[in-house]
Amino acid sequence: MKTTLIIAVLAIGFGTSASADDAIALKLKDHKFTPAEIHVKANQPNVIAMTNEDTTAEEFDSTSLKVEKVVAGNSTGNVRLRPLAPGRYPFMGEFHSATAQGVVIAE
Amino acid sequence: MLASLLIVFREIIEAGLIVGIVLAASKGVPRRSLWVAYGVAGGVLGACIVAAFAGELESMFQGSGQELFNASVLLLAVVMLTWHNVWMAGHGRQMAREMREVGAQVAAGERTLAALAIVVGVAVLREGSEVVLFLYGIASQPGTTTASLLLGGSLGVVGGIAMSALMYYGLLAIPAHKLFRVTSGLITLLAAGMAAQAVLFLQQAGYLQVLMSTVWDTSRILSQDSIVGRLLHTLVGYNDTPNGAQLVAYVATIAAVTVLMRWEHGRQARLKATAVPAPLPAE
Fold first, then answer.
1. In this predicted structure, what is the pLDDT of residue A11?
2. Can you state the angle between helices B2-25 and B176-204, rounded to 10 degrees?
3. I need a labelling partner for A21 at 20 to 30 A (CA). Which of A61, B109, B143, B180 fits?
4. Mind listing the pLDDT tens digit for each residue in B142-159?
């Protein structure tokens, strides 16, 4: 019973989530995001693969996207976005918010 | 300096509030400060370990290690908070009475302190690892501003401690016979908010992809990013754009904790009722 439930949950989990293969690339270098403007399709899940080329960790932080994700220095982390209503969703690198700014545009 | 103070303070508010609530909820229990200190120390140690292995954690479970870790520790905290509340539902009245009678010493309550210490540890660990990474990042960059940034960071920590004190003394203003009822209510909402947060982490890890559309958006009225929004987020799980699965988790947690508390309260009452006639001395 429990196993069935777990399998069902996993099936739901893997069935509808956006795969990391078609992730949108986002680069952080010198505490700046490239591209600083990310366009995604509205109303479907998306994945951003953030590569942190700085030596120190950064936190991808966005209140409107409801994401807080630490990406260590010189590594890549996946940021999963929920299906978004059309609109602008600003994000920042919390540890260097003076320069690390960007926006996701769902359309 | 102001920026680093704000970041550290922002991260520490949550842990600070939780420590304050835990201290109030365990009032009258001997050695509670020691247990809370264990929780904080364990959390700080854990935060340093998590920060040191942030890259490794990240790459586990197909890049979802961090989210699954966060969800797991949050759910652990939910279980511990539930356990504490259920235990208190059975013994709280007795504790409040003993507090009045024997001057705030209730030996019976020490059992749930381990659970509360874990809750404190988890709170410090989650927020602390970000603080460690942030401050490490500053410290590893050569520059004249390092000292002032670190000073800002330390002041942020002081702010977190002040938050604990404020929460604690605020709760202590409540009359003793009502205190545990209030802390039980707070802990129920705390647990519900954490459960909803855990659901969000599971969704970001790629699991539980159900009921994901936003149910309402109150970000214009009260943004979760504002200080008040953040405080309410920690205390009662306020979310300006919750999704369906989060709401289900929130309501289900409140229902489950309430039902378990009622059940334990009834069970203890029945136990006492049957134990009232003193056992007859053996003839």
1. 47
2. 130
3. A61
4. 664 667 777 877 887 888
Instruction: Report the distance separating Cα B27 and Cα B22, nearest Å.
Output: 9
pTM of this structure: 0.84
- Domain total of chain B: 1
Query: pLDDT grade, residue A21 (50/70/90)?
Result: low
Under an 8 Å CB criterion, which residues of B touch A? 3, 7, 51, 54-55, 58-59, 62-64, 66-67, 129-130, 133-134, 136-137, 140-141, 200, 203-210, 212-214, 219, 223-225, 240-241, 243
Distance between start and end Cα atoms, chain A: 42
Question: How many whole angstroms separate alpha carbon B253 and alpha carbon B78?
Answer: 9
B213: left (phi over 0), alpha (psi -120 to 50) or beta: beta
Residue type, B31: R
ipTM of model over 0.90: no
Measured distance between the N- and C-terminal CA atoms of chain B, rounded to whole angstroms: 79
Per-residue model confidence as pLDDT tens digits over A50-78: 999 999 899 999 988 989 899 988 888 88
- Any domain includes B190: yes
What is the identity of the amino acid at B128? G
Q: How many CA atoms lie within 13 A of A14 on its CB side?
A: 7
A96's CB contacts (< 8 A; 6+ apart) are A31, A58
All domains of chain A in start order, with CATH: 20-106 (2.60.40.420)
Domain that holds residue B81: 2-273
Is the CB of A80 less than 8 angstroms away from the CB of B204? yes
Order of strands, edge to edge, in the sheet holding A37-40?
A37-40, A101-106, A87-93, A58-62, A67-71
Q: What per-residue confidence (pLDDT) applies to B1?
A: 60
